[in-house]
Amino acid sequence: MAHTALFSKHQSLNAKIVPFAGFDMPVSYTGIVDEHNAVRNAVGMFDVSHMGEFIVEGEHALALLQEITTNDVTQLFAGRVQYSCFPNGNKGIVDDLLVYQMDENKYLLVVNAGNIAKDWAWVNKHNEKYNCTLTDLSDGMSLLAVQGPKAIATLSKLTTEDLTQIPYYHFKINTLAGVDNVIISCTGYTGSGGFELYMPNDVAEQVWDAVMEAGEEFGIKPTGLGCRDTLRLEMGYCLYGNDIDDTTSPIAAGLGWITKFNKEFVNKVEFEAEKQHGSARKLVGLKFDSKIIPRQGFDVVNDAGETVGTITSGTMSPSLNYPIAMAYVNAETAKSGAQLQVKIREKLANCEVVKFPFYKV
């Protein structure tokens, strides 16, 4: 297993370490629910340095990214971020990612840890006709996610940047915690607001310690991958490998909003037809009226006992105090308010189709 630059810090905090995407990563420190509530109500900090970062630069960088991502990269400008995905040429998704425009002909791509090698090969393959300069920064860059309603108050102690003036999905580059050129990005995958901070590995501990000290008065907690999952699931955010993968289209996954047909891109024809005619299955939210927790792979059935779908992610929601899940179900079943059941260990748990997000911030 690989380690992030903060691995010894996690050990010193007695984190529960688990293998994830080729890394030994902290799943929790004081408990998933405790950490989840800290992010919803105050502030928490995640080490997500296992994520991958690529630089794409050159005269044809925009043209390359327009072809290999679903979103419209022309809508970016220096300082803006975009959520997107790589279509795989077979009506599925290589990965979901963030695209940062650093300069006119320079972009930063942030990809999932488990897909770094796959994504790097995909970008390089399509770059053959564009001849952009590609750089893989993944091994040398650390990423901290400082999330929650007290994130601005915490980080404002450490930088002269007015964080209140950075809109959602925008970023600035400034000094933070004595470290120059930190990318301060108003992004995150929790639904509770906050920032993601990019920096070289050799200053990651310095920034971590400074943020923990600055957030002490607000009750900041180190937070692990366990509550990262419960937080994103309450918001209905997709997790690659669970809710989206090489076999799922962005249209079926509810990601039509990042799939723009005013440009040419891989799989445009197929995705446009799917949007016009409808997907055979759709990703929906399920709310349960029992305490039995649904898990990935469990069957979803209708009142006739017919299997109509499969759970992709499920948990007991710490904020709502009832089980929730994401599932692909047949299109005719994917109607808000539909009553279904899920097979859980030979039992049937009643559930209702609901709209995302489960949790309203």
Structure description:
The chain is α+β, with helices and mostly antiparallel strands and 361 residues long. Among the domains are: 7-51 and 140-234, 2-Layer Sandwich (Gyrase A, domain 2), CATH 3.30.1360.120; 280-361, Aminomethyltransferase beta-barrel domains (Elongation Factor Tu (Ef-tu), domain 3, Beta Barrel). Helix content is 20%, strand content 34%. It contains eight helices and 19 strands. The strands form four sheets. Strands 10-11-12-9-3-13 form a six-stranded mixed beta sheet, sandwiched between helices. The chain has a six-stranded antiparallel beta barrel with strand order 14-17-16-15-18-19. A hairpin with a 2-residue loop joins strand 10 and strand 11. Helix 2 (32-41) crosses helix 7. The protein is globular, with a radius of gyration of 21 Å. It starts with 6 loop residues before the first helix and ends in a 7-residue tail after the last strand. The model has no long low-confidence stretch (mean pLDDT 97).
